[in-house]
Design a protein that fits this description.
Helix content is 53%, strand content 10%. Helix 25 runs antiparallel to helix 26. The chain contains 26 helices and 16 strands. Strands 1-2-3-4-5 form a five-stranded antiparallel sheet, with helices on both faces. A five-stranded mixed sheet has the order 13-12-14-15-16, sandwiched between helices.
Length: 592
Amino acid sequence: MAIPKHTVDQIRQASDIIDIISDVVLLKKTGKDFTGLCPFHSEKTPSFTVSPDKQIFHCFGCGEGGDVFSFLMKYQRIPFVEAVQGLARRYGIPVSESPTGKIENRPVDPKEILFEINRLAADFYHDVLLNHELGKPALQYLMNRGVPLDIIKTFLLGFSPDSWDGLTGHFRRHRIDPVMGEKSGLIIPRKGGNGYFDRFRNRVMFPIHDGHSRIIGMGGRVMDDSKPKYMNSPETLIYQKSRSLYGLNRARTMCRQTGSVFITEGYMDLLAMHTHGLYNTIATLGTAMTGEHIRILKGLASRMILVYDSDQAGIQAASRCIDLFKTEKRYDDIRILVLPKGHDPDTYLNEFGSDEFRKAAAGAMSVFSFLTDMAIIKHGLSPNGKVHVIDDMEQQLASLESVDGLIRLTAIRELSEKTGIPEAAIQDRIRRSSATIRHSGKSRPVPAKPFSRLDRHAVMMMIQVPEIVSEIHRKCVLDCFDDPVLKRIGERIISVCRSCRTISSSELASVMMENSDDPIERRLVGELSIIHQEWTDEACQKLISQYEKKRKHDLNAMWIRKIKSAEADQNDQMLCQLLKDAQSALISSGGE
């Protein structure tokens, strides 16, 4: 579908980029702009900047940048049209009219159909749980597990009947295309192509929502010892496990208010946490945590607390998460809450209550306290065991040199206290290990060629002061550029400004980034748009005059080279002509 330009512009003007990005990035006001940790790459120090004045964002770390549409396209991995439509729905702007005023015959977005199918399924399961005889055992199961009715309704919990066609028949009665039902992953085609049957049967159902509270998939749990214990929807157009977190839509506000988030493994643990008032809790849907999960959560909270089961499987899951946090350079943001043996969050809360849980959470261990304790449990503290403990911790501590020296020193001191081995001995061991890592033969990246400083300033001026572009063009300033990339950007700016006589700085930056396929160009435009620079008339004219002086200098240097060449060749006739031409050219250009 082609959306009219005036509608796109209307949506862009109605959208607040701070409001949109704040949904997924924890932003802090810094001067005129807002800064936060980039959602597109791993970083510890905020380099992600959002300008409310220009309505654009730019990361000085990875170079991503653009307007509100660019952000949604990159973050949600959606095409331009879908980003526009999503914002239109959010701000109540119709997009169905063409430039002629006639309603367009556009196809329905398949993602919207899948959202509707999942909603219909969730309503069906929820109704069975609360209002049908078939759902009574499941309702009693939840009540026995300590899940109150208000939580059941809030999370739209349900029950899938022990039938091959309960949901399939419901879809049929609502005239749902079975092909789309299959694409939702909720029904499966029978062998031989003769109809469909339900994927979920005789399970307590947990609708999975995205950050906008749309249902994207389902999880189901058996009520006995059947296998598999848990089952989730397969991945679809709208459901990707690596980006989905159970309860995120409910937890977002409280995560921001508290600055922390509890991370559990399963549905029941999360429900127990919310039942006891710990609303800043999400669950990883029983799957391993991913880098995408961490990047989502770091936009909501600065402190992440893993609350996994105290059994061996829970310990191993926590250890895997630590490796991932290390990769994402988020070591100091993570804490590990180890519950007493035999407890998971669900059983602990039901036995001891939320106050005791909060006390335990306040004492949650750092990454290295946890790893040290696990190494001690594994090897013991005999003389030989201590050696193995140090062996286990050596690489972990050595890798911290490039992350945070203070964290490493604190970890070494704690390791010394717990093992009785002197800090100096551990330091020496770690120092040698760090040197090995540094000199492991990895080649250094070749630094990128720096851009011309003068040309950068000129392009920055053109983007931030579009009114000066016509004078830049008239005085042929770009002819004096040394940098081909910046010159190409300058030429595109002139083209845009000539086609649109009145354009603001923010509109110019958006158009430039939107219409460029070159990532280097987009990065430069974003960076030069968002850097604050006071451009008075005097400052603009001073920069232009530098190019005029440069032109005279370059022209003079050219004539000198030609004259010296003629002298070297002893070509008197050529020399006389060059002297006349040079004098004439320099006079006409205002030279001496």
